[in-house]
Design brief:
The complex is a heterodimer of chains A (277) and B (455). Chain A is mostly helical. Chain A is built from nine helices and no strands. Helices cover 76% and strands 0% of the residues of chain A. Chain B is 30% helix and 40% strand. Chain B has seven helices and 25 strands. In chain B, the strands form five sheets. In chain B, strands 4, 6, 10, 11, 12, 20, 21 and 22 form an eight-stranded antiparallel beta sheet that branches. In chain B, helix 3 packs antiparallel against helix 5 (139-164). Chain B starts with a helix and ends with a strand. The chains are: A mainly alpha (277), B alpha+beta (455). At the A-B interface, helix 7 and helix 8 of A face helix 2 and helix 6 of B.
Chain lengths: 277, 455
Amino acid sequence: MYRWEVILLWVSVSFYVTASVLYVFSFIFRKDWYGKASLVTFSGIVPHTVSIVLRWIESGHGPYVTFYEVTISDTWVALLLFLLVQFKYKKLELLGVFVVPVSFLLIGLGVMSSAQIYHTPASFQTYWLFVHIIFAKLAFGSILLGTGLSVFYLIKEKKGQFAHQALNKHLPDLDTIDELGYRFIAFGFLHLGIMIAAGSIWANKAWGRYWGWDPVETWSLISWLIYGLYLHLRLTWGWRGRKSAWYAIAVFAIMLFSIFGVVYLYHSVHSYYLKLS
Amino acid sequence: MKSKWITEFWRFFQSRKFALIILTVLLILIVAGVLVPQKNVDYKIFSAWYFYLLGILLFINTLLCNLKQVQRVSKISGYKIFTLPPNAFQTSFDITSAMDYAALAERISQTFTSWGYQTAKKQIPDQETVKISAQKGQGGRWGVIVFHLSFLIILGSVFYGNLTKMEGITYVGVGQTFTEREQDYFKITRGLLFRENQHLNFQMTLNRVKARYSQGYPDVDNLTLVFRDQVKGTTYYQGNGENIAYRGMRIFIDNMGFAPALVFTDDRNQLIYGTFKKIQTEFHSENRVTFEDQLDIQSLNLKVFLKFLPDAAKKGDKVYSKSSQPKNPLLYLRILSGNRKLFDGTLKTGAKVKLGDNLFLNYPEYRHWVSFRLVRDVSPAGIFPGFFIGIGGLAIYYLRLPSRFLISVEKNEKGATVKIAGYTDKFKEVFKKKFEHIVKKLQQEYEETGREGIV
């Protein structure tokens, strides 16, 4: 089963590489291949899904214990969210230029870490952990999309009336991009909040403390606060458009660090779940 | 002059700008706290007075902001004519009708009422114009208030919990009884308002434990505890150590280890000294846990180095433990009297060794010990409902879209011109579609003779 899991993951990776190349090529050389790129991304999601399911069956737990599992499942949620959003907003194909290569690079990071299966102790098996994990993934996915929209807001704004056809055909107007970016980030903020709440309830159940200033906990709180500030800045000081987009892009690095980087630097109770080797 | 200064300060104190400043300073402190390791340093940010002070300021500011919001939102009434900001969506269309413009306005008002809007109508004096205001979904504004209320509940619970909480660690060997009182704890931390007489004084006896280290964590297969006190009598617990709750106290297994019995006797087999020595468990990595300790027996002038090997195996001359499960337990001992080595080797249970002319060491058995962490903290009772209230608030905020329409029906020679403006303070793209939909429905309902595009 393990062999099939790895083969299918690599099949999906090859689809994502192709999709990334198609997206970036279309954007740089102004070709209208976004539809094809989205189709290739969708083709990658299928083996990616089967690979995750096979690992789930083999390990007996969801894909959240090792760094490998976290990256492959987080990117799966992000890519699926991106494809689903395209059903609703046809004019967001260009977002793939940001979302697919970033996801592909994160899968690459995951694949480079150990794919060994670890088992969790019985005391850690609670549905709160499941809620915690699901919302962490949804938060990452929606914030990734929101950040991607912020990137394209700045590009489209800079090009102004000289924006090439793709920026107009495959992206909505600036106000809509700004509004959608805000909504995705606000959605991510809500999910981050639920993730922290569920994690806190789980920690209280498992260790008798709802908060311990553990590095991963603290970085999650930092992410939540900076996105809370993002919302307050929009409401209180009317940060819209360019300012808001720059802020979203700048703090995305902190979000990435709190999900994927903290376990490299700190020893944390979460290190158990994010074994790197 | 003074009162003006105070008014300004008060206004700033309850402003969202002040909230932003507090949040930013808190954020900087939290980042500093996570970058500077907080263990074994004097400079502990997360428990510093200024960190708590910022929390209290945030609490007061949120409370005042929320009260202001409640006042503002409760004043909004759909039964009075209101005005809309200049950036509201606007359009207009003509209705050709034999009906009077006032009757048309009445019909439009009724149409909005049938769609669930609160409406108000007003004839403009000296003009042949009727203004209608319609609003719906103002509950969405309460979402933010509810969310901030949850924040207050959470912060309040954290403060109260920290003041009244108690957390203690105790080591209990199999067969031993722990009494829940100040002096029986190995280590205890208390909130400012927790008093020694608030201990529950129950007794907890560790009857049996089967535990091992699994991937770096103590994993209990079976644990039996007996609780005794005057309130509840005798209560038995049997399980894997999860969710032990007794009289509002939660009990967690922190660590586990082994305690060999060391019995020193003389040549007539009379007891000289005996103890169950709880050997320290040291966690090195997920697959490596060691059980090593030292014992000074001053009355016998002995220094004993102990190493417990639960699953002993031999590799060349080296004896090591394959796992933390007591499958083949061996006790390694090095006993010194001053600089003189009396014993250096491994023992199995039941062993007896001669250490000197009139001194023998017996190793009859070993037992498990478990370190328990006992926690009394009422804050989760406020924090966790607070989480759900907060999520509920955000759900209201996202699911209810406040919509406000201002319609003006002006008489013209064919019937009336309907000018319609719509506004929401969030999700403008969603509202734009709703606005277009409503205009279309209105146009379908009344005779459409012309329409300008949405501005």
